[in-house]
Amino acid sequence: MSQDEIFEYKASHGGFVDLDYVFERNFKQPLRKKNEKFYNEIKDLSIEDFVEKMLSIREELDSFELFKAEYDEAQKSIERHQTIAWKETLAAFSYAINYPAKHFAAEDMIRMRKTLLPLISVIIASLPQSSYKEIIALYNAGLIRLVSVDDESYVEPHSGEGIVYHYTDHTGDKKSDHYKMYIDAIGQQPVQFNDIPFSTLREDGIISSGYLKFKDTDAGKEQFQHNNGNILKVEPDHFYLRVDGLNINDHFQALDYYGKASPYLFIMAVPFIAGLNPDYSGLDFCDTAGKRVAHSLKSIITADQTVF
Q1: Is 144 helix (H, G, I), strand (E, B) or coil?
Q2: Which pick of 35, 74, 249, 286 has the fewest CB atoms within 10 Å?
Q3: Exposure of 183 in the CB half-sphere (CA atoms within 13 A)
Q4: Cβ atoms of residues 267 and 210 within 8 Å
Q5: Which helix or strand (DSSP H or E) is residue 32 part of?
Q6: Average pLDDT for consecutive 10-residue bins of the chain (308 residues)?
């Protein structure tokens, strides 16, 4: 969505961009043009129902058996010179959702992170065929295995060597497994407002935490009453969801506590922008981000010259 389209939509929809609208516009309709048969299967599904349908297929299979099936499917796609339409469209949607995401209501951001992003992360985390072969060979030789853990799992340093991994397995049993070596490959994690290393920016109020307002006051109140530390209440009855990182506008300029942009401060480090940018990687994201920053800089320089 262009900025003009985003603000036009917000003006007639209570000041928010709706996730369901973006899903229809940037996933279902493009998919309809590429694979009408598959579109007809999912056209009436909500986001939650669609994700459940796609993930249920995967949950029914052993992870490495699924991995092999994905490899075979990708190999056929390569040989036929044909993309897998719904996967390609979902990957494109992941990029397209970035810019309206800053204009979602808090409820939609929660929905997206809870339901949609897990599916996207599974689908777009593709590998070259050679890497597939290597991993499958290691698995067939009994050298690697995959253990599914729950959201409450955590790592504890071992008193002697390595770590102890605490988790609940798929049968509901609590486990505490010791490993001599542990590699955390989750990736770069978000940095919260109080951990930003530039203390003057915090103290002078030039930067602020990322927040999204709840569209439904009752939904915000319910979240707040569950002692959710990420929910902020502003009198009389306005509720906001605190997201990871800092508050930025569509040009990646830092926003202060009052939502005013700092024209000369652009925030582009991944740990600082992850909260308001669901998909912050890839050449397409970098291309669009670079253009927006360059356009802003050009406007600033032109304005300064005019004043001079």
Answers
A1: coil
A2: 286
A3: 1
A4: no
A5: helix 29-34
A6: 90 94 94 91 92 75 75 76 78 86 93 85 71 89 86 90 91 90 85 89 92 91 82 86 91 91 90 84 82 90 65
C-alpha span between 136 and 138 (Å, rounded): 5
Hey, what amino acid is at 151?
A: D
Structure token digits, residue 31: 């998919």
Full DSSP string of 62-108: -HHHHHHHHHHHHHHHHHHT---HHHHHHHHHHHHTHHHHTTS-HHH
Q: Which pTM value belongs to this model?
A: 0.80
Tokens found for residue 173: 């049993």
Sign of torsion over alpha carbons 104, 105, 110, 112 = negative
> φ and ψ at 239, to 5 degrees?
-125, 140
How confident is the model at residue 308, as a pLDDT?
47
CA dihedral for 96, 100, 101, 105, sign (positive or negative):
negative
* Both tokens assigned to 126: 């593709």
Helical segments of the chain, H only: 3-11, 19-23, 29-34, 36-42, 47-59, 63-80, 85-96, 98-101, 106-111, 117-124, 129-140, 199-203, 217-225, 270-273, 283-307
Residue reference for tokens 């979902």:
90
The Cα–Cα gap between 52 and 194 comes to 36
Tell me the three state secondary structure of residue 305: helix
Cα–Cα dist 185/177, whole Å: 18
Omega into 236 within 30° of 0, i.e. cis? yes
The tens digit of pLDDT for each residue in 22-61 reads 999 999 999 999 889 989 999 999 999 998 888 776 665 6
Tokens of 161: 């060597």
